[in-house]
Amino acid sequence: MTPALELAGLTKCFDRPAVDQLDLSIRAGEFHALLGPNGAGKTTTLRMVAGLLKPDAGAIRVFGIDALSEPVEAKRVIAWVSDEPMIYDKLTPFEYLEFVAGLWSIDAATAEVRARSLIDWLGLGPNAHERCQGFSKGMRQKVALAGALVHEPRLIILDEPLTGLDAGSARLVKDVLVERVRDGATVIMTTHILEVAERMAERIGVISNGRLIAEGTLEELRKRAGKGDHSLEDIFLDLVAEEAQESDAA
Amino acid sequence: MIAARPATLAWFARHEIALVWRDWLSMMTAGKRRREPLVALAVLVIVGLVHLLAYAVVAPAAQAGIAPDKATLALVTGSAFLSWTLMLSQAMESVTRAFYARADLDLILSSPASARRLFAIRIGAIALSTTALATLLAGPFVNMLAVLDGPRWLAAYGVLAAMGAVSAALAVALCVGLFRTLGPKRTRLAAQIAAAVVGAGFVIGIQAAAILYTGSFSRLSFLRSEAFVALMPDAASLLWGPARAAMGDLGALAAVLGGGLALLLAAIVVFSARFGEHVVAASGVAFDAGRRQRHRAGFRQASTRRALRRKEWMLLARDPWLVSQTLMQILYLLPPALLLWRYYGEETGMLLILVPVLVMAAGQLAGGLAWLAVSGEDAPDLVASAPIAARAIIRAKVEAVLAAIAVIVAPLLLALAFATPRLAAVAALGIALSASSATLVQIWFRAQAKRSSFRRRQVSSRMATLSEAFSSILWAGTAGLAAAGTWFAAFTAAAALLVLAATWAIRPRKAD
């Protein structure tokens, strides 16, 4: 089966290497959590996958499509949701979804059915025709999420989507993502909330200093770290500390 | 620097001065300190050039000797009143921003420091900045008059200070009045529109009078006209107090300056206490539920480019700051429209003036709209992550901008086409070139910014601002010369293309 995402030797340097020869393969239909300390290169990696940054070297394949030589084709199946909701204050959620559907060239009738369903599902019904200015962070994130889902992407990339959300909104976002994975979509999510990754992700990747230092199921990570029934937090901190020591030694 | 006790007037004043100075410096140097000497040199050169220009304007009158007769007093008063309406407009903008900009207000208002003192200083700062801007523009003329006609003219600086004080006081009173009658939600847009109308109203009125009575576009020619002077009261009238003060009558100066400062002080005393309450009320608007929008039954089928264009138009139409900024530019098209009406049916002469005015206005308007569409994109990641080539995104945005310009200038062009099709064709071509050039410059110098930074779009690149202005001026010149039927138009067109080529060559290279 073609992987949802394959990264090979992905490299991006700013003042220093942000992503350094990163190799990663994510299976289709999987909920994958990408973890790492601040500045590890998670966001840079995902921005390159979403076509928002050009890598210095390496390859990106999305469902077998070369995202560097055929970016438009790759973008057709990807949705990108960042921690800062990408919405327009002067548009209503309904207008926003119409615009996003237009960007992805979705048939208007189909898009409208999906949009109405998403608006209801995310509890945006009472505000569907109000401009987004003044919406709370949670509502803005819901609008952005609805925008990401209205074109039914096969690969959903989320960068810290739960930051700043209240418990109810966070639960709703998590439920939506689980539902999408159940329907066959692939989700890649970065998060600093390790309990969320522990509970939701089928596989977990840990990035540090721009390199993938561990990847697998929670059990596989436990084995690799030699920590029987420890929590993901313990394993993560050990892995990162180990990597830091190796980097210092090198 | 002398240390002031925390939270006192002096302490707040020092804080404000430091912020304003750094803000100005950053605006002038684009945040690059190594540019400071270059900026200082550029300022000196510009000051020198403006003084030369002022010399050319005032020397003929000064050599003949300037007496405070009725005609001179009317001219000085009319010119000062024109400047004052612009100062009032600027002060209203500043007061509105003080109400609605959050910046450091959350910090200060949540502290135990006296908000009244802060706002007293901020009202004073508005008066100072308004005076400073007027001084920058009028200073060279005052200096040249002082050199050529005697130092008595230096008293005009006192009149400028009084004008700044009165405009700040009146602006605060007007905005607070609007706030109390319309509430925080509507005041922002109403104040912006009022500022635009105040700023343009008198200028346009005088220009309209000039067109109707003297057949000229020049405001000064109207203020100098015998008909205008005859309507004015005699030289002993109190109306001429500010003009007499500007011309060195120390008694009048004391009265004008004293009156202005007293008015400012009264505004500070009366309004600074309530200012904080209004700011808090205005901040509530940001957290208020969004405005309900009339909605259509369903989604409209759209290609990607069409969706982008439609989005740009919706955002432009719903942007209150843009509405007020654009309103001012559109209001300035009224005198040309009047000119068209007055001289309808004439091929040459006055109608020729319309062509460069329209071309210039279109270039400036296009620059602003292009900045909003290209640099002021609120969701750049969303658009960039969509399955559409970057070139197609830019193309759709350019189409949106140019279509908006076409809608704005179409009525005038159409009317001109009925009067003189040749001039209309030249104007249309000039408008297309000028608007496209300004849009191109904005694309080459695009830098992601908040839409709300529209007023300060020049900050991102002075080179883009200069290039946009020069290309608009040169295309306006080209269109004017072409309309007059001279081949000199080819030279200005070549110069405009040269400016564009130079701008393209120095455009920042985008790094991913």
Computed over alpha carbons, the radius of gyration of chain A is 18 Å
Would you report the number of β strands of chain A?
A: 10
Basic shape of chain A: globular
- What is the C-alpha radius of gyration of chain B, as a whole number of Å? 25 Å
Integer average pLDDT of chain A:
89
Beta-strand portion of chain B reads under 5%
Please count the helical segments of chain B: 21
Mean pLDDT across the residues of chain B is 83
Strand order of the largest sheet of chain A: 6-7-8-3-9-10
Main β-sheet description of chain A: 6 strands, mixed
Number of domains of chain B: 2
Largest sheet of chain B: none
The portion of residues forming beta strands of chain A comes to 15-25%
Order of helices and strands of chain B: HHHHHHHHHHHHHHHHHHHHH
Low-pLDDT regions of chain A: none
How many helices of chain A? The count is 9
Distance between the termini of chain A: 38 Å
- Which residues of chain B sit in consecutive blocks of at least 5 with pLDDT less than 50? none
Helix fraction of chain B, binned, reads over 70%
Give the overall shape of chain B: globular
List the helices and strands and how they pair.
The complex is a heterodimer of chains A (250) and B (512).
Chain A lengths: L4 E9 L3 E10 L4 E5 L6 H8 L7 E6 L2 E2 L4 H6 L1 E4 L11 H11 L4 H14 L15 H13 L5 E5 L7 H16 L3 E5 L3 H7 L2 E6 L2 E6 L1 H8 L6 H18 L1
Parallel strand pairs in A: 3-8, 3-9, 6-7, 7-8
Antiparallel strand pairs in A: 1-2, 1-4, 4-5, 9-10
Helix pairs in contact in A: 3-4, 3-5, 8-9
Chain B lengths: L8 H21 L6 H29 L5 H31 L4 H5 L5 H35 L6 H27 L1 H31 L4 H6 L1 H6 L9 H6 L3 H38 L16 H14 L2 H12 L2 H9 L7 H26 L4 H5 L5 H30 L1 H24 L12 H4 L1 H23 L4 H17 L7
Helix pairs in contact in B: 1-5, 2-5, 3-5, 3-6, 3-7, 5-6, 5-11, 6-7, 6-11, 7-13, 7-14, 12-17, 14-15, 15-17, 15-18, 15-20, 17-18, 18-20, 20-21
